[in-house]
Write a structure and sequence with these properties.
The protein is mainly α. Helix content is 74%, strand content 0%.
């Protein structure tokens, strides 16, 4: 294969990736609007006899928690438009994460449609796949080659107030950090909702004790991601946001549990402190 032919093939592949990411972002945002009931559809909280509502389980975040989707969707659209620019077509970092980001956005839309259909168990499979795709994005963003790209870009345009490196950090790293952090909490809530919908009972220990054990796992995951990401804030912000609203939801009302609420607050504090320690460690190594 000649050099010109190879370059043409790479150019076409890059263009297809850019279009796929852009279309996927639009589908995700439209899906989000449908999930909110904006187009007359059933809001997610009311689907499946309320299995995914804020009062369905001990690990369901309170209603206002879901406003985090606004900055996530805005970030997804911003990222889609930014990566579609000709200047980023052959960017090695976009080549590494473009397809997984597109998959995550399509899975997000698919989850909404499945949840609206009341298929709570199937929705768990989809959200786990969504979580996996976001983990792939996050890991690839943390790879040495991927980390070098924004630094090099920023160095090359140091005189510009809005350097490509800064914009990329916000639209790509920031957006998908929030996205992963929130979906981590949402996966816990979704799995718990599926178990309740399946009427598995209290499984000997009781629902509140199981909720606490799951929160312990969430803490471990949050600390692990904080260490791996060297204290990057977006993931921690989204995870702490979700955990905090679990605490709020369990502090009052018919589904209240002071035990779960206190452990959720403890989870927020521990994940936040773990992230801070990881950031300090990163600064010391710099």
């Amino acid at each position: 294969m000649s050099v010109s032919t190879e370059q043409s093939t790479e150019r076409t592949t890059d263009q297809v990736r850019q279009v796929a990411v852009t279309v996927s972002a639009v589908i995700a945002v439209v899906g989000g609007a449908i999930g909110s009931g904006a187009f007359g559809g059933t809001p997610i909280a009311e689907a499946g006899d309320g299995a995914l509502s804020a009062e369905a389980t001990f690990l369901a975040p309170d209603g206002p928690a879901f406003t985090i989707w606004t900055p996530i969707y805005v970030g997804l659209i911003g990222y889609a438009l930014w990566q579609a620019l000709p200047a980023h077509r052959a960017d090695p970092r976009q080549r590494r994460v473009g397809w997984p980001t597109a998959v995550s956005m399509l899975l997000n839309a698919a989850w909404i449609l499945i949840a609206q259909a009341g298929r709570v168990t199937t929705s768990v499979v989809v959200i786990v796949a969504l979580l996996a795709s976001l983990i792939v994005v996050y890991v690839r963003l943390l790879s040495p080659r991927a980390l070098a790209a924004p630094r090099a870009s920023a160095a090359g345009s140091a005189s510009a107030p809005n350097s490509s490196g800064w914009v990329e950090s916000v639209l790509l790293d920031g957006t998908f950090g929030l996205y992963l952090g929130w979906v981590s909490v949402a996966t816990i809530a979704n799995l718990t909702a599926a178990l309740v919908a399946a009427d598995v009972g209290d499984l000997v220990l009781g629902a509140d004790v199981w909720a606490v054990l799951v929160l312990v796992v969430a803490i471990a995951v949050g600390l692990g991601v904080a260490a791996a990401g060297r204290g990057r804030l977006p993931y921690a912000v989204a995870m702490c946001w979700g955990l905090a609203w679990i605490a709020v939801g369990r502090s009052d009302g018919p589904d209240s549990s002071m035990l779960v609420a206190l452990f959720a607050v403890a989870a927020v504090v521990i994940v936040a402190l773990g992230t801070l320690v990881a950031r300090i460690g990163r600064a010391d190594r710099a």
